[in-house]
């Protein structure tokens, strides 16, 4: 971790890409760990898609309600907090990109979070909204819907097969192309284009540091691998945990 801390202290422009692993220690199950309890029988890939929603809207809606309720009960951990502190100290030279939809970075105090996959606590319409579709007037239910045209409310998250928010992805790619250090924290690196940001940074000559207790599909792109949990490694690497401030 000392090498990573030194790279942080000497870097000009840092990007951090996070995945579900940074929230694991807050109690939010990751995607590729076994789903817990009732949901263990379902694959997220089957539910987090338009087809999955249309096939069983009530069940998928309840899965998102379960995740919203779970996230509401947990708290950001030391990994989220270290990133929020670092942003305050190094805002101009720091970009935080997340695949997570749980909002824990924002609750830890990170102000400018590039959310590639949307926001679990926001809602949208499944089909293009008509004049009669107002989220505030949606009829309650599993799922809520428009009482005029029947349009279904959906979570404002990016489902498999859907495009990422183009402006946010563009900002993330620009940051990856212009950084000299990228920390890749708590992601299996299995889902693109998010995982491609690490390869993009590596291609332009940035140092890539992976923080993950287990192997990931991005390990081959790493200049350094820190086999540790995010909540332990990030305060240390970012110099925000023990009062040391990265230069
Ligand atoms: N600290 C750091 N990493 C951790 C920790 C921890 N405490 N605990 C687990 N991890 C790592 C796991 O080893 C794994 O590599 O976090 C990673 C979680 O991987 P996934 O569950 O695949 O989550 P993620 O990579 O964020 O998934 C990307 O896939 O399902 C879609 O849209 C969804 O955003 C998600 C995307």
TrEMBL record:
Q: Which residues are involved in binding NAD(+)?
A: 99-102, 212-214, 230
The residues the record assigns to binding Zn(2+) are 133, 146
What the entry lists under InterPro entries is as follows: DHS-like_NAD/FAD-binding_dom, NAD-dep_sirtuin_deacylases, Sirtuin, Sirtuin_cat_small_dom_sf, Sirtuin_class_III, Ssirtuin_cat_dom
Entry GO terms, CC:
cytoplasm
Spell out the protein name for this chain: NAD-dependent protein deacylase
Active site annotation, chain numbering: 117
Q: Which positions in this protein are listed as binding substrate?
A: 64, 67
The record comments on the domains as follows: 2 residues (Tyr-64 and Arg-67) present in a large hydrophobic pocket are probably involved in substrate specificity. They are important for desuccinylation activity, but dispensable for deacetylation activity.
* An MF annotation (GO) of this entry: protein-succinyllysine desuccinylase activity
Cofactor(s) for this UniProt protein? Zn(2+)
Question: Where found in the cell?
Answer: Cytoplasm
**What does the note accompanying the cofactor annotation read?**
Binds 1 zinc ion per subunit.
Catalytic activity reported: N(6)-succinyl-L-lysyl-[protein] + NAD(+) + H2O = 2''-O-succinyl-ADP-D-ribose + nicotinamide + L-lysyl-[protein]; N(6)-acetyl-L-lysyl-[protein] + NAD(+) + H2O = 2''-O-acetyl-ADP-D-ribose + nicotinamide + L-lysyl-[protein]
EC primary class = transferase
Keyword annotations of the record:
Cytoplasm, Metal-binding, NAD, Transferase, Zinc
Looking up Gene3D superfamilies in the UniProt record yields: SIR2/SIRT2 'Small Domain, TPP-binding domain
Xref: PANTHER family: NAD-DEPENDENT PROTEIN DEACYLASE, NAD-DEPENDENT PROTEIN DEACYLASE SIRTUIN-5, MITOCHONDRIAL-RELATED
Q: Which family does it belong to?
A: Belongs to the sirtuin family. Class III subfamily.
Gene name as annotated: cobB
Q: Which residues form the Deacetylase sirtuin-type domain?
A: 1-247
| Function description | NAD-dependent lysine deacetylase and desuccinylase that specifically removes acetyl and succinyl groups on target proteins. Modulates the activities of several proteins which are inactive in their acylated form.
């Amino acid at each position: 971790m000392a090498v990573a801390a030194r790279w942080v202290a000497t870097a000009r422009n840092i990007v951090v890409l996070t995945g579900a692993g940074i929230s694991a220690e807050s109690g939010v199950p990751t995607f590729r760990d076994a789903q817990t309890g009732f949901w263990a029988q379902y694959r997220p890939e089957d539910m987090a898609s338009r087809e999955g929603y249309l096939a069983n809207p009530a069940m998928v809606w309840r899965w998102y309600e379960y995740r919203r309720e779970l996230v509401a009960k947990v708290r950001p951990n030391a990994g989220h907090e270290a990133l929020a502190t670092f942003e305050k100290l190094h805002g101009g030279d720091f970009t935080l990109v997340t695949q997570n939809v749980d909002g824990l970075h924002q609750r830890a105090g990170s102000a400018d979070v590039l959310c590639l996959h949307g926001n679990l606590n926001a809602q949208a319409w499944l089909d293009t909204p008509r004049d009669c579709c107002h989220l505030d007037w949606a009829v309650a239910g599993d799922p809520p819907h428009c009482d005029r045209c029947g349009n279904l409310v959906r979570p404002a998250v990016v489902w498999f097969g859907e495009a990422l928010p183009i402006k946010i992805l563009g900002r993330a790619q620009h940051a990856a192309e212009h950084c000299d250090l990228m920390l890749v924290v708590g992601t299996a690196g299995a889902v693109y284009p998010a995982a491609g940001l690490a390869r993009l940074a590596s291609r332009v000559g940035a140092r890539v540091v992976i923080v993950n207790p287990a192997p990931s599909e991005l390990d081959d792109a790493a200049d350094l691998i820190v086999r540790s949990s995010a909540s332990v490694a990030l305060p240390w690497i970012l110099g925000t945990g023990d009062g040391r401030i990265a230069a």
